[in-house]
Amino acid sequence: MPNRVPFNDVLSSSVGTPEHAELLDSSPRSRVWRVRLTDRRLVIVKQITDTGDTGAVADTRFARELAGLRLAGRAAGPAVAPALLATHPAARVMVLEHIDDLGRTDDWMPGYAESLARLHALTGPADAGALPVASGPTAADAESFLKLAGALDVPVPPAVPDELAGLLERLDPTPHHALLHGDPCPGNDLRTADGVRFVDFERASLGNGLIELAYFRIGFPTCWCAMSVTAAPLTEVEDVYRTTWRGLTGKDVPGDLADACAGWLIQGDALVERAHRGTVDQFARVPAEDFEWGYVSARERLVHRLGVVADMTRDHDHLHAVGRLSSALAGRLLRRWSNLRPLPPHDARPW
User: Fold this and answer.
1) What would the mean pLDDT of 345-351 be, rounded to a whole number?
2) Which residues contact 36 (CB under 8 A, 6 or more apart)?
3) Which of 45, 117, 192, 336 meets the CB 3.0–4.6 Å disulfide criterion with 245?
4) Sign of torsion, CA 10 15 19 20?
C-alpha cells in the first residue's frame, strides 16, 4: 500500500509500536502521518518522496530537513521546532514530536516574529557548511525584472541597472549564518502554549534573517496565502523580532530590510509555487496572463511588492531609482488592469 506508514523495526525500537496511523494533508513531495503508538502517545511520521524529483534530489531534501531540525533543536527554553525522535534514512523517514496546535488567533504575528528571531539566532559562523547557503536573487532575475518594465512600456531610470547590481552584492548571503526556515508560511507555524514552533524544514539554509523578516512587508512571498500587514501591527512585529534578536545575540540585526524586500520583488519565481519555480521566466508571463496561486493572482502579488519597495525607498541612498521604477510599474499595472485587488489583510488568515 503506497500510503502505509513506513515504520520499521529500528523506528519501533526507538519510539514504540504503531497502533493507528492517519494520513495528513501535505505537499506532493512528502507524505505525513499522525501515528498513535500502543502506549497511546502520538507522533508525526514524515517521509520525503521523490515525486517530481530524482532520488538524489529527494535525498538532499531529506538531509536538509534533518540538519535544519537538529540545529533548531538547540533552542534553550521554549522549542522553536518539533523534536526529532528517530530517523530511517534509507526510506527518507523521520519521526517527530506531535504538537497540539492551539489553532487560529487574531493576534498571531508577535509570537511568530519572536520564534522566527529565536530560530535565526541559533546558528553562527561556526555552523558554516551545516546547511546550504541561502539562495537569493541573481543577475538573471534583475534582467528579467527590467525586461518586464520594457514589456509594460515603463521607462527605466538610468541609475536602475547599477542600483540592482549593488543590491545583488549587498544581498550576498555568504557572510551571514542565521538559521533560515526557508518557507516560514502560515500553516508551517504551529501555535502552542509555549510559543510558535515551525515545521517543514525542507528548504532550511543559512543566511540573513532579514530575508524572512521581510515576509511581513512583502506579503509572505513563498506562501499560497499572501497577506498584507500594515501600520501598527507591522511596527510591532518588526520591533518584537529585532528586540528578540538583540537580546539573544547582543547585536542589532545586520543588513537593510529595504534590500531584503527589493530582493523578493525582483524574483519572478516568487510569484509561483515551488513546483513551478525555475521552469520559465515568470515575469515574462505577467503582461500576457494573470496566473493564480492560492486565492491571489500574480499581478496582485506583484502590485503589492512594488508598492512596498516604492514606499521603503523614497529616501534610500542605494535604491532610490529602483523605488521610482517600482512606483511607475505599480501604477501601470493598476491602470491596465483596474480590477486587481489588494492582498487580504493579515487578520483574514484562514487558520
Assistant:
1) 70
2) 18, 19, 20, 21, 42
3) 117
4) negative
